[in-house]
Amino acid sequence: MTEIATEGYIGLDGATINGTEGDAGSSLNWTNTVVHGVGGADSDNNYNIGDPGEDGYLHVGVDYFVSAPFYFTGYTITSSGVEYGVFSDGTTYLVPLPQDGTTQNIIPSSGTTNVYQSQALAYLCFAAGTMISTPMGERAVEGLQIGDEVLTAEGLAVEVKWIGRQSVKTRFGAADRLRLVRFAAGSLGNGLPHSDLTVTADHGMLVDGVICHAGALVNGETITRVPLAEMGESYTVYHIETEAHEIVLANGAPAETFIDNVSRRVFDNYAEFEALYGDVPEMDELPYPHAMSARQVPGRILAHLGSVHAA
């Protein structure tokens, strides 16, 4: 089981439910917050989140505090574009904070959560060296800049709005969603990708009309997890943001661009985006079904990938 490290947590006092807890459309109100384990001696790795599905997502009643019986409730709090999950033992409601420099004042002292959702999404990235199709030929993702054009899977040229970067330290492991998945050349069929492709586990690949997370497609042979031992002390991942959610070509294979249902704040150069754009409207997702875990991948896709022999 993967554990997601946290940096303390926030207690939500005066919590009440609008509607029936766990029902679609319901939400949670709170009237005060109490800080625990942020910036103190007990703030590192004491309130990790267990991720039994190892997909980097929060699932209701499944993902939980390793040290106590607090499970994800399906409620999240959005602050500065970040969705923070709310966990509960049935009486007390807590919000763990990620180890990304987030401070204890990120959660408002009172408010209302987002409406109930059965799982909370995460972000997605390409590894350095990934070749992105552009009108001028392929370019490495780390060499792209704001204003450059990339090609969509339909052959349209769209401008890069931003390139986000995130450094991942390997010394204490890495959140499963940031672990790398390697697609061997030809592993998706039809000769794609044209060369080995490495993306984060939660990066969406368009396969037979379904956006499948890379981690959900791992078969241990042609699609594999990259051992952290191969990555040295740290590695950097990148995301491409365009004005709209798009499908671009990474080493020839269709892969999605960034979608802002998770925060840009997790990236090292978030300040650059904020200075350029400030607050922006939420993006609309492409109208494809999503498979975020292996059990959600249609059988026809699994069967096809199982019969593909990498180049």
Structural overview:
There is one protein chain. By secondary structure, the chain is mainly β. It has two helices and 27 strands. The strands form nine sheets. It has a five-stranded antiparallel beta sheet with strand order 5-2-11-10-9, with no helix packed on it. Strand 21 and strand 22 form a beta hairpin. The longest helix is centred in the last third of the chain and has 9 residues. It is globular and about 55 Å long.
Number of helices: 2
Helix content: under 10%
Beta-strand content: 35-45%
The H-and-E topology, N to C, reads as EEEEEEEEEEEEEEEEEEEEEEEEEEHEH
List the topology elements.
Elements: E1 2-4, E2 6-13, E3 16-18, E4 27-30, E5 32-36, E6 49-51, E7 58-59, E8 64-65, E9 71-79, E10 82-88, E11 93-98, E12 111-112, E13 119-120, E14 126-127, E15 131-134, E16 137-140, E17 149-151, E18 157-169, E19 180-183, E20 197-200, E21 204-207, E22 210-213, E23 223-225, E24 234-242, E25 247-250, E26 253-256, H1 270-277, E27 290-291, H2 299-307
Parallel strand pairs: 22-27
Antiparallel strand pairs: 1-6, 2-5, 2-11, 3-4, 4-12, 6-8, 7-13, 9-10, 10-11, 14-24, 15-16, 17-18, 18-24, 19-20, 19-23, 21-22, 25-26
Summed up:
With 311 residues, the chain is mainly beta.
Tags for this entry?
311 residues; mainly beta; 4-stranded antiparallel sheet; 2 helices; 5% helix
